[in-house]
Design goal:
The chain is an alpha/beta fold and 310 residues long. The chain folds into two domains: 139 residues, Rossmann fold (3-Layer(aba) Sandwich), CATH 3.40.50.1370; 153 residues, Rossmann fold, CATH 3.40.50.1370. It is built from twelve helices and nine strands. Strands 7-6-5-8-9 form a five-stranded parallel β-sheet, with helices on both faces. β5, α7 and β6 form a beta-alpha-beta unit. The longest helix is centred in the C-terminal third of the chain and has 20 residues. The chain is globular, with a radius of gyration of 19 Å. The N and C termini lie close together (5 Å). Bound molecules: phosphoric acid mono(formamide)ester. Phosphoric acid mono(formamide)ester binds next to α2. The site of phosphoric acid mono(formamide)ester (CP) has 9 residues, from α2.
Length: 310
């Protein structure tokens, strides 16, 4: 039973398969104008960090299922956390206003702290450089939709793998895939963290480090580009040392197989040349749209007692 959404490792293979099926069904429902299965329910979104996709797609998902939304889009400045209120007290209050709470926070572990005191589902919308589980779920949904499978794939994770919570969570969820290989392409200093590498090794996931993006693009079924997370670097100098090192362009498309795809959790800065956008293998805008369908599936599982996933 899905109680909270906090980390990728809480999901089994069966959970992920069911959510992928549900998200595909939610696409049909959304395209028919939505339904009202969550009528009378309220979702609270509390974002202590900037967001376009995650907050708005959760809100869109809730509204498409007939629910309503209350939101704090700039909680680090406008919530009573500014006055010193703890996340535990904030959650105890907000749960009296809403049936589920979506939290994004710059500090790792804050959604889990909220969940420890919460009577309603807590959804981690990204906590520091730690996890972004709903992004990982929409990413595997996108891979399934685009390639027709999540098994027997080679995925190149490119960019800031140390501070990027999206590639961390994607690597972790791919431990549930069969015969998945990872190619890790990161500038020196922002390589994937040892805890993720340990998880890959313990699940028997084959991985290797690669410095050549052309070689990775030639080999991969999925090239997953990511932004260098400027806001997480200790100083400007260390950020400038790694920015701009991996930029996907038409020269990479040329070596990619016709059926391979390029993903990016977005927002992008300069990691993908806009000239790539019109190529059918550029799937990142479809990926962002899939966020609505996967988040509809999650809200249904968390809030609809007659859901097959509840
Ligand atoms: N992918 C993602 O988390 O985007 P936002 O920061 O816009 O929510």
């Amino acid at each position: 039973m899905l109680r909270h959404v906090l980390r990728v490792d809480q999901f089994t293979r069966t959970d992920v398969e069911r959510l992928i099926v549900s998200a595909a069904h939610m696409r049909t429902i959304a395209e028919r104008g939505g339904d009202d299965r969550l009528r009378g329910r309220i979702l609270a979104t509390m974002f202590f960090e900037p967001s376009t996709r995650t907050r708005m797609s959760f809100e869109s998902a809730m509204i498409r299922l007939g629910g309503r939304v209350i939101t704090m889009e700039n909680a680090s400045e406008t919530s009573s956390a500014v006055k010193g209120e703890t996340i535990e007290d904030t959650v105890r209050i907000v749960e009296t206003y809403a049936d589920a709470i979506v939290i994004r926070h710059p500090v790792a572990g804050i959604p889990e702290r909220g969940a420890q005191v919460a009577a309603v589902p807590i959804i981690n919308a990204g906590d520091g450089a730690h996890e972004h589980p709903t992004q990982a779920l929409l990413d595997v949904f996108t891979i399934q939709q685009e390639l027709g499978r999540i098994d027997d794939i080679t995925v190149a994770l490119v960019g800031d793998l140390r501070y990027g919570r999206a590639p961390r969570s994607l690597a972790m969820i791919l431990t549930l895939a069969r015969n998945c290989r990872l190619i890790l392409v990161a500038p020196p200093g922002v390589e994937m963290s040892p805890d993720v590498l340990d998880a890959l090794a313990s699940h028997g996931v084959e991985y290797r480090a690669e410095i050549d993006l052309v070689a990775a693009a030639r080999e991969a079924d999925v090239v997953y580009m990511t932004r260098v997370q400027k806001e997480r670097f200790p100083d400007e100098r260390s950020y400038l040392a790694v920015r701009g090192q991996y930029q996907f362009g038409e020269q990479h498309l040329e070596v990619m197989r016709p059926q391979s795809i390029v993903l990016h959790p977005l927002p992008r800065v300069d990691e993908i040349d806009p000239a790539v956008d019109s190529d059918p293998r550029a799937a990142y805008f479809r990926q962002a749209r899939n966020g609505v369908f996967m988040r509809m599936a999650l809200l249904d599982a968390l809030l609809n007692s007659s859901s097959t996933l509840a």
